[in-house]
Amino acid sequence: MSDKALTQIPAYYIVLKSGSPQIIGWQTLWHDEGSAVPDYAVPSGYEAVVIPDMTADLWADFQQNQNGCSGGLAYEGGKIIPYSPPATLSGQQAALAALSVQKKALGVYFQPSAASAPVLFPSSDTAYANALQQAQVAQLGAWTDGTAWTLADGSSVPMTGDDVTALFKKLAKYRGACQTHAAALNTTLQHDLNADLTAGWPDNH
């Protein structure tokens, strides 16, 4: 857009909730450029920001988003951007709980005695319960060495009784580490709602 075209863009004022970048609405500023927005135009608890010199990019943002601006946009650093509501403790804890389930079910790499390289074994709640049951069978001496263990992709690998016991121990250690890390993150959230929930999870190898 040329400078000449920019001069045809009207001045605007946007209405923000006090202390928040969230855009509540915007209006054309029919007063002289740079003049103050009249008090009656701004509700109590809100503030107005006058934008007399509209850039081409900012004007495009207005044109593109003005129909859906309510609750959806923010004005920060001289730019109109998508609005992200402030994090809440309950919201972050829900996200953490979902992530914890996901991490615990990521699978664990374990190398059975008959394999030439580590194999990814499922570690979901169901898979863990099955591993526990089979480890108990092995401990009772009732596991037949060479029995096939079915993996998540449908393939199988032969396992000895010692393999079964070692696999269960590795699954338990990994899942326990995930739970410990989730508990630590939950404690951090009590004083830092912006804590990175994706960092620091245990390795599954």
Automatic annotation (TrEMBL):
It holds the Pfam family DUF4376. Residues 116-190 form the DUF4376 domain. This is DUF4376 domain-containing protein. The lineage of its organism: Bacteria, Pseudomonadati, Pseudomonadota, Alphaproteobacteria, Acetobacterales.
